[in-house]
Design a protein that fits this description.
- The complex is a heterodimer.
- Chain A is mainly alpha-helical.
- Chain A has one domain.
- Helix content of chain A is about 60%, strand content about 0%.
- Helix content of chain B is about 25%, strand content about 25%.
- Chain B contains nine helices and 24 strands.
- In chain B, strands 1, 2, 5, 6, 7, 8, 20 and 21 form an eight-stranded mixed beta sheet that branches. Chain B has a four-stranded parallel beta sheet with strand order 14-11-10-18, covered by helices on one side.
- The two termini of chain B are about 30 Å apart.
- The chains are: A mainly alpha, B alpha/beta.
- The interface between A and B is large, with 41 and 50 residues.
Chain lengths: ~60, ~475
């Protein structure tokens, strides 16, 4: 990770207005694997859709 | 019997027209006026803009759908509203100018009993000299045709990278008051994905140039998420993705002009800067379409119906007030026009009471803050609500209460694809409830149970599902009305 940051800093021209993101959290290898894990992502897919449906039911009709 | 006219056939107008065709008893008419002959699922323009989807996959002709639903389709642009009629009739009317090739520039005055203004945005590339694909030096993904051009320019850039040249690619907002930061966010990560797939990412400098003061603002003042027992922010969440993908971010920027290969911009501290580029996709600011309004005697009453931005004034609280005094109640609930109980303005066409993000000006007084997004899910809901209110009035009389859908009480999902492929794709998927934060109801402005952000393959599947689902719905195929907006 530090190598990657070093590369990024090398490409930022002097006096640049590019934001300093060196404090932003980097995902671990485990997180990156989970993001692409088929069984886990199938579950996330259904959870995300369930959340959308809950929002639809709660907020799309506001009639009194 | 009543005649309903819908101006615009984007997400909001098309949704309103389809529901009206379902809800109105026989004998009433629905007319849609749109300058475009095709419907466009705009969120998927991102994929067209990187060459992963063809234009024909994101558009379809409107006329057959409207024929099937018994809706009259007028391919024309509206030029004026006459809400009290004209010298010959008290019936309200709208003036249109045809854009269909066989009737180009012919005009017609269409009478209405109820009007839905869903004209969407005017793409104001002209607000920034040198911006845009028509006579400018940047590309866009605002329309399917723009996205096709963007894909070609990106392909050329990738070829130059493959030839060993270093290239700077700039993606973002072409003006300090732009909206749709989510679309630019999505495009920059799709470009990153394409560059990695082509094996040329190491020679490319990828820059996200935005009017947001902080990453993750998205024009909705950012979000607070709850994660593993902690409250975190969309700023940190988005920053993580930028750092992971090595995308550089320039924040709080107002693009003042674009010259060939150079973007000139001002930052919040008032300083002026330049950024050299080989490829630039910069979105334009939005304004209302240039609609005039006239009284019966021909007097110009445009300023009574429209805000200076060109958006139509509705049941919002437009009293100027500081950010600290903004409230959820400022936002419209019914979208009924000021002074006219038979006109509604929905989607991008209604004038918001103020921004959602904190308003900021540079040291020189230049406004640099995102305008409020009013696209996608909320836009469709507004269209449906207007259709339901009109249908009730026609069926039960003009005293029937309006249906309501405030953006301060409705949620939205923003699924920003950050890569393509059923096994290799990914997306930054966010949900927020409500869209406009309500600090009187929630300490963080939003319901933490429904305000979430996650990155992963599942988000890509959701984005793909929404693509097919909304095209299915928009084509009014069997069961379309069961698919929520």
């Amino acid at each position: 990770m530090s190598e990657r940051m070093h590369e990024q800093q090398l490409r930022v021209p002097a006096g640049s207005t590019v934001a300093d993101l060196s404090k932003a959290p980097l995902p671990t290898e485990s997180t990156l694997r989970k993001r692409m894990s088929l069984p886990l992502q199938v579950i996330r897919f259904f959870v995300f859709n369930a959340r959308i449906m809950r929002m639809v039911l709660k907020g799309h009709s506001q009639d009194h | 019997m009543a005649d309903v006219v819908v101006l615009g056939a984007g997400v909001s107008g098309h949704t309103a027209a389809l529901h009206l065709s379902r809800l109105l008893p026989p004998g009433n008419t629905v007319t849609v006026v749109s300058p475009n002959s095709q419907w466009n699922w705009i969120p998927s323009n991102i994929w067209v803009g990187v060459g992963k989807m063809a234009k024909k996959q994101v558009v379809f002709p409107l006329a057959p759908v409207y024929r099937k639903r018994g809706i009259r389709f007028v391919q024309a642009k509206a030029t004026a509203i006459r809400p009290r009629g004209d010298e010959t009739s008290e019936r309200p009317a709208v003036d249109v100018e045809y854009t269909a090739p066989d009737k180009a520039r012919q005009t017609e005055r269409i009478r209405y009993d109820y009007l839905v203004n869903a004209t969407g945005p005017q793409l104001r590339f002209h607000a920034t000299p040198g911006l845009g694909p028509d006579g400018g030096h940047t590309v866009s993904v605002c329309t399917a045709d723009h996205a096709v051009e963007a894909a070609a320019a990106l392909r050329d850039t990738i070829e130059r990278l493959k030839a060993g040249q270093s290239q700077t690619l700039v993606v973002g907002m072409g003006h300090g008051t732009c909206t749709c930061e989510g679309a630019a966010f999505e495009y920059v990560f799709n470009v990153d994905h394409e560059l990695r797939e082509a094996g040329v990412r190491d020679r490319a400098r990828l820059v996200f140039l935005t009017n947001e003061a902080e990453l993750g603002d998205f024009g909705v003042d950012g979000m607070v998420f709850e994660e593993r027992g902690f409250q975190t922010t969309s700023e940190l969440w988005a920053g993580s993705l930028f750092r992971e993908r090595d995308v550089q971010a320039i924040l709080g920027a107002h693009v003042s002009r674009v010259e060939p290969g150079v973007v000139h911009y001002e930052t919040l501290d008032g300083a002026s800067h330049t950024l050299d580029f080989d490829f630039a996709m910069l979105l334009p600011p939005f304004g209302g379409v240039q609609l005039k309004a006239f009284d019966r005697d021909g007097a110009d009453i445009t300023e009574h119906l429209f805000a200076p931005s060109g958006f139509m004034k509705v049941d919002a609280d437009y009293t100027p007030k500081p950010y600290e005094e903004w409230r959820a109640e400022d936002w419209p609930k019914t979208y009924q026009a000021v002074g006219y109980d038979n006109i509604w303005a929905v989607g991008i066409a209604f004038a918001p009471p103020h921004q959602i993000s904190r308003p900021r000006k540079s040291a020189n007084g230049t406004a640099i803050a995102p305008s409020p997004p009013r696209t996608g899910m909320p836009s469709g809901v507004m269209g449906k609500v207007a259709a339901m209110s009109i249908a009730d009035r026609i069926k039960h009389g003009t005293s029937a209460p309006n249906h309501e859908a405030s953006m301060a009480a409705m949620g939205a999902a923003c699924v920003a694809s950050v890569g393509e492929g059923l096994r290799t794709g990914s997306a930054a998927a966010m949900t927020m409830m409500p869209v406009v934060p309500d600090y009187q109801r929630f300490p963080t402005g939003r319901d933490l149970a429904d305000t979430r952000g996650e990155v992963g393959l599942a988000g890509h599947w959701v984005k793909l599902m929404l693509h097919y689902l909304f095209l299915y719905k928009a084509k009014a195929l069997p069961g379309w009305q069961l698919i929520p907006e």
